[in-house]
């Protein structure tokens, strides 16, 4: 009996250690993404995308190596949470802004942590906050539109309607369900919020994730609503870099994304 109990305790301790270690590792996910309306000068441009850092401190050596390799850094929100030292947020934002021009949106935890102090840190770190705001990214004489939507935005439809028909648009929004509710076109949506479920059980999936998010827990998704839908945009839902509530992950590694923008093969001069 005592032997059985000791085996169970040892197995539980080993599992907890594995989950703790997995929460401190991460995958670098590299994707080439074709965008129909991508201007020619942006073919091959790269985005370093990070979301949901929460209280996790970014390692300087892990991110400084992308300086000169990424054209922009996009940050999908939840860069803070209640009760954590602001020094962590300041370090993370300073580090990311040194990689490349950086843009961020607020997530739900950012709102709870306190946006007045957070805005000061972003300004000091030269990270541009896109709070229901659009900016243009430049490559040579070409440009594309980057729109950042505030958490629970009430201006998203208006911002997205105010664009040219063939204008390439990237949307940065924390919550993927907000993106799916949009009735207007976007070429690429980058989101997070779900943490991929954080604890994903074999055969059962992300059982602790709110049911509404399970269909978009993590990965790439089409923005088409039906076969006749003319929209051909794509949405990435990141598993995020930090953790929420428990500092543990299981079957759901943290991730950072290096996204290379590509023109469709049909538009390429070699085809």
From TrEMBL:
Keywords: Signal
Signal peptide: 1-25
Domain of life: Bacteria
Organism in which the protein naturally occurs: Paenibacillus silvae
Domain annotation Calcineurin-like phosphoesterase: ranges: 46-196
InterPro entries cross-referenced by the UniProt entry: Calcineurin-like_PHP, Metallo-depent_PP-like, Metallophosphoesterase_sf
Name this protein carries in UniProt: Metallophosphoesterase
């Amino acid at each position: 009996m005592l032997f059985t109990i000791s085996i169970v305790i040892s197995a539980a301790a080993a599992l907890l250690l594995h989950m703790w270690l997995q929460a401190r590792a991460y995958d670098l996910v590299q994707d080439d993404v074709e965008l129909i309306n991508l201007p020619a000068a942006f073919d091959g441009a790269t985005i370093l995308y990070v979301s949901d850092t929460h209280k996790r401190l970014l390692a300087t050596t892990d991110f400084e190596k992308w300086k000169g390799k990424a054209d922009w850094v996009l940050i999908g929100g939840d860069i803070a949470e209640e009760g954590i030292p602001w020094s962590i947020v300041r370090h993370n934002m300073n580090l990311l802004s040194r990689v490349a021009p950086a843009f961020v949106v607020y997530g739900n935890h950012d709102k709870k942590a306190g946006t007045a102090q957070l805005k000061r840190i972003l300004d000091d770190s030269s990270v541009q906050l896109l709070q229901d705001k659009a900016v243009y990214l430049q490559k040579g004489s070409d440009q594309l539109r980057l729109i950042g939507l505030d958490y629970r935005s009430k201006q998203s439809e208006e911002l997205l309607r105010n664009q040219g028909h063939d204008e390439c648009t990237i949307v940065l929004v924390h919550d993927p369900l907000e993106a799916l509710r949009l009735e207007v076109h976007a070429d690429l949506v980058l989101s997070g919020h779900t943490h991929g479920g954080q604890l994903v059980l074999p055969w059962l999936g992300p059982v602790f994730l709110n049911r509404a998010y399970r269909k978009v827990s993590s990965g790439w998704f089409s923005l088409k609503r039906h076969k006749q839908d003319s929209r051909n945009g794509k949405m990435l839902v990141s598993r995020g870099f930090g953790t929420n509530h428990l500092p543990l992950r299981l079957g759901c590694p943290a991730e950072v994304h290096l996204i290379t923008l590509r023109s469709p093969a049909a538009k390429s001069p070699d085809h």
